Every structure is written in structure tokens, then in C-alpha cells.
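Researcher: Structure prediction, please.
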Amino acid sequence: MRLLIVEDEKRLLKILERGFKEEGYGVDVASEGEEGLYMAENIPYDAIILDIMLPGIDGLTILSTIRKKDIATPVILLTARDATGDKITGLDTGADDYLTKPFDFDELLARVRSLVRRKSATKEALIRIDDLEINTASHEVTRGGKAITLSSREYSMLEYMAYNKNTVLSRSQILEHVYSEEVDLDSNIVDVYINYLRKKIDAGAERKLIHTVRGAGYILRDAPAE
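Model: Predicted structure follows.
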């Protein structure tokens, strides 16, 4: 999953960026309103974490602008303000959730996961594809009842493919949702991680779930390939 974090407090920004990357998210960051607005308007994200108080364009203006352009990306507002009115204004402007500083990172992580699940066509926390089960809350993965250990990056790629099961995903689509904007889109990193996943998910299984669609990309299929 790919996130945008717009926060002008540099220490907090680094903590959030590091924390989400350790959880396997692709993370882009901006510390000024203009930059954050440009990225929110032009790059597809699974969620945006947006501070209200920003230099230049404030967070509420960014939120209002993208909503007027029908950009429905889930947004969590971060604010140091305690006033109920500010929270109401944020929600009325189009925010999906908010947190008041200081906050616990694990709580923010849980809220991001919840928003991404709600956005997805797959609502359940547990995704089943044939005998493969993915718990999106705990990140536990099993196949045929046997636990599979994945790195954070492997899990992130598998979860994205699972949310889009039976849909061919190009390498660029996978990169855009799993990695940050600085990643070279011509990189073969997707092929490398698909190979890792195949060894862990499909090795020894009678039915293969991860398939290559030549010239198009990859698909996680819960029905036999034709």
C-alpha cells in the first residue's frame, strides 16, 4: 500500500515515514502544503495522513481542494488542536478520520489499515483465495493451514495482489502501490519479489495461485488458469 504523509514537524515526519516503511508501506512525504497538494492531486495513494497546520497551504485547504476534484483517497487529519469545532470542520470538509497530537503510532497504523480495508472492494479483514488466507489486521498468512513467514515488503505486495485478486496488475501498478515515488519504474524489483512469493506461497502446492500474464504483468488467481 502507498501512503502520502504531509507534516511540517520534521522529527515526527521521519518517525512516521520510518514506522510505515518498516510495516511494508510505500511512503511519500511532504513538509509543505503546496508540495503535499501537488502530490495528492497527481499520484494515486491508498491513504493520506495530513497535518492541519502547514506552511503555505493548510491541511484543510488541501483536503477541500482534492475533494472538489473528486479525489476520494481516504484522509486522516493530524492536529495539535483540541477544539471540537476543528474536528467537526475537518470531517465536514471530507476527512475520514482524525488524530490529535500526541498520538500512539500503533493507533495511527490501525486506523490506516481500517481505512484501506474500507476503501477496498474486499471489506473483510480475512482474505481467502483458494486455501490461502491473509489476515490484514495481524499480517498473518497461511496456506492449507500452514503458517507462511513473509518480509514486510513481501506481505505488502501479496496483500495488494489479494485485494485485486483475479485482476492482472502491471509491474508499474505494483510499484506505485508498494514503493515510494523515488523507485525506478524500470526496476526488476517486482519480478524479484514475485519470485520470492512464489517460493513461499506456491512451492509444493498442487494449485499455483500466482501467474504471469506475458506482456501484461501478474495475477493472483483463485481459479485454475484457462
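Model: The chain has a mean pLDDT of 86.
Researcher: Thanks, that helps.
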